[in-house]
Design a protein that fits this description.
The protein has 9 helices and 7 strands, in the order H-E-H-E-H-E-E-H-E-H-H-H-H-H-E-E. It is α/β, with parallel strands linked by helices.
C-alpha cells in the first residue's frame, strides 16, 4: 500500500520528536487512515491505539500482524476512551475535521500530564492558492462527484504536475514560485503517494487552514510545559506542532 521512502515524511512531521521517543510508550493516533503511520510507530511503542472514522477496517487489515496495535472506529473530535496516553499524535487530519478547536481539545484530554501531543496541519500562511482558488473550485465543481471520478481527476493532475515539478521547480532560480519548497518532497515520493496526496486534497469534505496565531492558541504555556512547545513551518505550507502537557498541579486553559 505504501512505499518505504515515505518514512522520512513522518519523521519530518513529528520532529523534534523522534521514533526513539516512542520506545515503551502507550500511544494514541488520532486519524490513522489506512494504518501507514501506525506501522511506523508500532515497532517502537508499548502499545498504540489508532482511531479513524472511515478507514478502520483497512487499517485493521494493514496492521493485523502487529500484536500491540488496537484499531478503533470513531470520531476523533468526540470519542472518549476513558484513559490517557503518553503520546497523542494527529498527522494530517485535524484540518479535515468539522471543528479543529474541538478536535484539539479532545486530543489534549487524552494526553497524560507530562505526555506529549504532536499535530501536523495545513497552514493558512503560504497556502493562498489552495485557500482562494483550489478550494472554491473544488467546492463548486466536485461536491457531488463520486470518489472514482475524483480519483481519475487526481491522477490527471498528478501526471500534469510531473514535468513542471521535475524541470522548472527543480531550479533554484525559481525558488520564488509558490509551493517551491513543497515540491521538493513531491520529487522524493512515489507516483502513488503523490496521487493519494492530490486525491486527499480534492476528496476531503472540508479543509481548514491553520493560522500561526491558532497554533499558538492551541500550544500555549498555560497548557504545555515551558520550553517544550515547538511550532515549526514545514515546506512553507504546513505546521508541525509539539508540546508536553502540564502536570495536574499546574493550571491550564480549557
Amino acid at each position: 500500500m505504501f512505499e518505504d521512502n515515505e518514512l522520512f515524511l513522518f519523521e519530518d512531521w513529528i520532529a523534534p520528536l523522534t521514533l526513539d521517543d516512542f520506545l515503551g510508550k502507550h500511544v494514541l493516533e488520532c486519524g490513522c487512515g489506512g494504518g501507514q503511520h501506525t506501522r511506523f510507530v508500532a515497532p517502537y511503542c508499548k502499545s498504540i491505539t489508532a482511531i479513524d472514522l472511515n478507514t478502520a477496517e483497512i487499517a485493521r487489515d494493514y496492521t493485523k500482524s502487529l500484536h500491540n496495535v488496537e484499531i478503533l472506529e470513531g470520531d476523533i473530535a468526540t470519542i472518549d476512551l476513558g484513559r490517557q496516553f503518553d503520546i497523542v499524535f494527529c498527522i494530517g487530519v485535524i484540518h479535515h475535521t468539522d471543528n479543529p478547536d474541538t478536535t484539539f481539545l479532545n486530543l489534549f484530554r487524552h494526553a497524560k500530564p507530562g505526555g506529549k501531543i504532536v499535530v501536523w496541519t495545513y497552514s493558512a500562511e503560504g497556502n493562498e492558492i489552495m485557500r482562494f482558488i483550489v478550494e472554491p473550485i473544488r467546492k463548486a465543481l466536485l461536491r457531488n462527484v463520486n470518489r472514482r471520478t475524483i480519483y481519475q481527476i487526481s491522477k490527471l493532475i498528478t501526471l500534469a504536475l510531473y514535468p513542471v515539478v521535475h524541470t522548472i521547480y527543480s531550479l533554484s532560480i525559481f525558488s520564488f514560485l509558490p509551493y517551491y519548497e513543497y515540491f521538493k518532497n513531491f520529487r522524493k515520493l512515489s507516483f502513488k503517494r503523490n496521487l493519494l496526496n492530490i486525491f486527499d486534497k480534492l476528496n476531503a469534505p472540508q479543509t481548514h487552514f491553520t493560522t500561526k496565531n491558532k497554533c499558538y492558541e492551541w500550544f500555549n504555556p498555560l497548557r504545555f510545559k515551558a520550553g517544550s512547545i515547538s511550532i515549526k513551518r514545514y515546506r512553507g505550507v504546513s505546521y508541525s506542532l509539539l508540546g508536553e502537557k502540564l502536570g495536574p498541579e499546574q493550571k491550564y486553559v480549557k
